[in-house]
Each structure stands twice: as structure tokens, then as C-alpha cells.
Amino acid sequence: MEKTVKTEIGGRTLSIQTGKLAKQASGAVLVQYGETMVLVTVVSSKDERPGDFLPLTVEYQEKIYAAGRIPGNYFRREIGRPSEKETLTARLIDRPIRPLFPKGYRSEIQVIATVLSMDMENDPDILAMIGASTALELSDIPFAGPIASVRVGRINGEFVANPPICDCENCDINIIVAGSRTGVVMVEGGSDVVGEEDMLEAIYFGHQAIQPIIDLQLELKEACGVPKRAFDPPEKDPELVRLIEDKAREPFRAAVVTPAKVARNNALRNLKMEIFESLGEDYADRRDEVYAIFDELQKAVCRDLILKEARRIDNRRFDEIRPITCEVGTLPRPHGSALFTRGETQVLGVLTLGSGQDEQRVETLSGEEFRPFMLHYNFPPYSVGETRRIGGPSRRDIGHGGLSTRAIEKVLPDKEDFDYTIRLVSEVLESNGSSSMGTVCSGIMALMDGGVPIKAPVAGIAMGLVKDDDNVVVLSDILGDEDHTGDMDFKVAGTSEGITALQMDIKIHELSKDILAKALEQARQGRLHILSKMTEAIEAPRENISPYAPAIMTVEIKPDKIREIIGPGGKTIRMIQSETNTRIEIDDSGLVKVAAVSKEDGDAALKMIGDITMEPEVGQVYDGKVVRIMDFGAFVQILPGTDGLCHISQLATHRVSSVSDIVKEGDTLKVKVLEINRDGKIRLSHKAILEEEGGRPDGSGRK
User: Fold this and answer.
1) Based on CB atoms within 10 Å of each CB, which residue in 66, 236, 281, 485 is the most buried?
2) Residue 76: CB atoms within 10 Å
């Protein structure tokens, strides 16, 4: 049955339609906001896959035709590799829905969101998130929804639901909030250094704004939804569970409190192997079942340690930060570097500065974008003591890089004050929790080490949560194991004055406002502690950039002189760049930027540009070059591209019968500019020079 439901969000109509498109999918909806339209489909196989994880894949696809354009690549089509925006949006869709599938569900689920139309006003990412929940609600796939999403912006102190794309630049808060009827399940976004109370208010403004969207989903489900397929979670053998509990609980309790990660993992691995072997041949073919019970028991032991014994596995207080060491200037040749170590998480930040030509060009639905700031996050397998194939950046790498980018970009200097392209690379050397926040800390110190005049230092921290009914514990600076066994991963980055970025994922169905407020305040205290350690290593940006960084110099010329610098077919500008080892950019206003390896090279390029663009002045003397001889005089080049006429009567102090008697083509001739007429024609005189130098009317030159 075809049906459409509508509501008003942020002063515009949001509609969800089903029953018209993609009817063979398990669930399909078309979500429209303005003239932006996203088709979202969900399908779940009937067969179960082996394994101990939820087989969910989420794909988000931006079709360039949606914006009325043809792709700019060689193939003129979408070539398969998702863009950074597509990857980040796929993660936005995935993270709030993943905890809502029943535990033990092993039938493959695929969510595909396809942007069909884009109006340049309404971002399709929110529509894709709403569509995923709605399609799942309508399908036969077991799903504990609905949830909904909204973008929250604050403009001039007022919160706005789903601000238009053009207004997002004016927002001092720009976050995406996903939630259920009763609580928040995910937050993602950034801000221009705002306080915790303001951010909390923004989050719960978003929670109120999603309620009409949840109503739409429920209305559509009641009219068009199908019964959910029967699913009974696999039951564990109670006798085997009891047997393992008796054998393993206390040894597990002793092993999980091993402080060092590698030693703890080795102890647990050996313990599991030992206990499994002790079960005998009767359980030899039930290894997967036994190890699944091990994992559940390990999680339960860790949670009991926190909730019942008020103890963390590394014996820290709940709000205590791991030991921190900071080092700057780690690498001699890059333009800035820093090593940040927090516990067993270690990140090397490396800065490279470049010119405008180094900006990243990105093709998006909104058109071509040029990005003067890039942050690339690398997570090699050795950082966690593993081996795996080395390839391109994973979705996780791109996601962590995106979060770190939002955290740092708010404090970067304006382009007018620091005209460089900035690239930061994060090399995760060790990881035991919160490498993305370690990336923020090392990146900021690398910027300061490289002399980038940032507005304020930024630090980041990852918060965790363990909750059992009314027993709630918020953890600061969580370990990897605490992330795995806990109920929340909440990353917060900011300055001493406020938040610049945050990302929150909830593994339980919702989170109350009181708990979130406590987590934000505890994160603030941790962030201030980390900042104090960072500023002990480097208090402020260095006064000068690295001598290995390019020197960028600027000069303004008249727009009509641009073609002279470029030359025919770019010949002149290529010659200047080649001879001076520089890179030159010219915009239409006449602003010329020179990026040079050294100041000397830059000065040489500026001089050549100055010579080309210099304009002759009446009364000025030039050492010119004779370029053409005529019966009536000689044409002399006094500046590159600028010739004047020295009339035969102005070649000497005496009468000249033939121009060739005085000069030949190629000769150097000192001349004075007598006149520049309205047409730009220049009248020159060598005679005036002779008279001034010689002081005798005969032009002998002798005084």
C-alpha cells in the first residue's frame, strides 16, 4: 500500500513515503525535505551467518545526478569507492541503529541510502538516518525502534532544527542528535568553543525536535508495517554456563585486574585455553559456544568489578586520568611534530605546511570544495600487537579523522592571518583506548611546535559508562576493555573555555539528561588536567615556522598585468617558477602569492614579478634594450613587455643622419622617459642623458 505522512520540522515539510519504490526490499521509504530526496532500503537474509557479531552493513550513496551535474572524474560516473562524506554518513546511520537489533541476531542486514535529489539547502544525511529507522520499522526485521535524528544549530543565541546548509556557517553549535521517544542514543558534531550547559541544552532541544518524526514512523508502521519475523535468541546450555562459571569466574577476576594491556590479554588468553582443555573431549567440538560464554563472563566480571567493588581494572579512580607524557619537536625535518602518550595509548602528530596549490579538492553534491586543512588518521596493526593487511584508510580511520578534524579546525587561525595549507597526520603507535582524542592532543602540540598561531590549545578525552538499573558509574579516560564492556563511548574535545567537538554512542537504549550532564562535567575536569600536561611541554605556538616550511610572500598587481606574468601559454610564469624554485598563484583581483623553499628564492621571484609589472614613470631613467630600428628612431624595451620610442632626434646631442650610426638591435641604451601619452605610448630620450652627464651641448660627455 502506498502511503505518505508529513510533519513540519524547522519551518519546512518533512515527508516519508512508502509503497511506491523498491517494493521487493524488506522495507523501503522515500524521505523528502524541501527538494532533497533520499531512498532508504533495508533487506535481511533468511539464513543465519556463523559468527559472534551482528552482520549489519550500511551504505550511503550520493549520486551526482541528484545535484544536476555529471561526475568530474575521467569515467564520468560514480566509480565505487565511497567519498569521505559518504563514509562518515554511513557511520552516522550505523551507530544509532546497531544496538537496537536483538542480541544473537545473525541474519545479514543491509541498509542502503541513496540520494536521489539534492536542493543545496537541505543536507541529505539527516534524511538518510530517519529513513533507515523507518524502513526497519516497516520491515519484518526485529528492531527495537523507532529512533529519529535532527541537526541542531544555534544562530545568534537561538536553536534551530535542521538549519539550511547556507546557515550552518553561522552556527556556533552544529550537532546531530539521534534519540528514541524517551532518551538520546547518539550525538555527533562540533561547536565554536561553547560551555557544557549550552551543549546539554542543544542536545535536549534536538531530543524534543525529533518527537514528531517518531510519531510519523509509528503512524506509517501502523498503516503499512508487516509483522516481525520470529526470532528466538540462541539459548546457552545452562549446565555448560554453570560449569564454566564455577571454573572461570575467580581466575577471570584475578586476570582482568592485570594493569598492563598485553600482560592482561595474555593472561586471559592462556586462562581460556587452559579451562577449555580442562573440559575434556565431550566439549572439544563446542569451542565457539564455550568461548562465547567466556566473553560474556569476562564482560560480567569487569562490570561487577566497577559496580559492586568500585574498582577499575587498572586500579584508577573513576575520574582519574592515566599518566601523561608530552614531547614536541620529535622529528627534525617535518614542519612540526609532537608525541603524546596517555597510559598505553601513544600518538605521533606530524605537521606539514603548504601553499594554496596544496589544498584538497573535493567533489561533493554541493559542488567543488577546496579544503585548506586536512587531518589524516592512521591506525597500523602493530599499535595493538596484531598483524593484518595494510591497505587504504578504513571507515574507522576516516571516522576518527573526521572527529579530530572538527575538534581542531575551530581554533585554527583565519586564512588572512596564516595563509598556509595545513596537513596533520596522526600515527597511532600504541592503542589502549581513545586514540582519536590522543590524535587531537598530539595534533595541537604539533601545530604549536610548527609555529601555527592557533587561537587556543585543545585536548580530548573519552568517557565511559557502566549502568545497572539505578547503579550508574561514569568513567574518565576509558581503556579499550572498558569501552568493550561498558554502555557508552563519549568523546569530548575542547579548550579550557568550552567544547569544540563531541561524539557519543550509547550501547543501551537511551541515556538520561542527568547522566549526560554528569559525564560532560567529569569530561571537562579531565580535559583541563590534560591541557595542563600539554602546556607543560609547549605553552604557546612558536614565534617562527620551521625553516623547512615554504615561505609564502604576497604582492598585489594591477589585474591588467596578470596576463604579462602568465605570458603566452603560461611561458613566463613557468620560467619564473623554474628559475626561482617557487610556486606562484594569481587570483583575478591581482593578488600574487609566491611559495618558496627559502626567503631568497621568494625574493628573487618577487623581483622578477616586480620587473614585469613595473610601470614606467615620466622623468625616470632606464637601462633599456634596443629591440627594433626604424628610419625615424629606435624602439627600446625599458621594462619587460614595455617598449618606448627614442626618436632619431633624441639619440644624440648632434644631428644624426641614420639611426644605425648610433645604435644597433640588441644594444643597451640608457634612456629617460619624456612623456607617456593617453594611449600609453612612451617617448624616450638618450640625448637628455648625454646632456645631463656631459654638461656640454656638443654631447661629448666631457665636463
Assistant:
1) 485
2) 10
| pTM recorded for the entire structure | 0.85
Is residue 275 very low, low, confident or very high in pLDDT (cuts 50, 70, 90)? Answer: very high
Q: What single letter denotes the amino acid at residue 105?
A: Y
Report which DSSP code applies to 177. Answer: E
The 10s digit of each residue's pLDDT in 48-88 is 887 778 999 999 999 999 989 888 777 788 877 889 999 99
Q: What is the mean pLDDT of the chain?
A: 92
The burial class, CB within 10 Å (0-12 / 13-18 / 19+), for 560 is: exposed
**Are the beta carbons of 486 and 507 closer than 8 angstroms?**
yes
What is the spatial distance between Cα 661 and Cα 646, in angstroms, rounded to a whole number?
14
Q: Which domain holds residue 442?
A: 324-465+519-537
In the block, which residue shows the cell 562490570?
303
Closest CA to 627 of 611, 614, 644, 608: 644
Same domain, residue pair 158 and 269: no
Question: Could you tell me which residues come within 8 angstroms of residue 657 by beta carbon, excluding any fewer than 6 positions away?
Answer: none
Look at residue 477 and tell me if it is in a domain. Answer: no
**Contact yes or no for 233/104 (Cβ under 8 A):** yes
Q: Which residues of 44-57 are buried (b: 16+ CB within 10 A; e: fewer)?
A: beeeeeeeeebbbe
Shared-domain flag, residues 218 and 139: yes
Residue 128's nearest CA partner among 87, 156, 169, 159 is 87
Q: What 8-state DSSP symbol labels residue 84?
A: H
Residue 471 placed within a domain: no
Whether 547 contacts 458, CB under 8 Å: no
Kindly report, residue by residue over 231-241, the tens digit of the pLDDT. Answer: 888 788 889 99
The CATH number given to whatever domain includes residue 301 is 1.10.10.400
122 with 36: CB under 8 angstroms? yes
Q: 609 and 630 share a domain?
A: no
- In three-state form (DSSP H/G/I as H, E/B as E, the rest C), the secondary structure along 370-412 is EECEEEEEECCHHHHCCCCCCCCCCHHHHHHHHHHHHHHHCCC
Strand-pairing partners, residue 160, are 153
Residues 580 and 662 in one domain: no
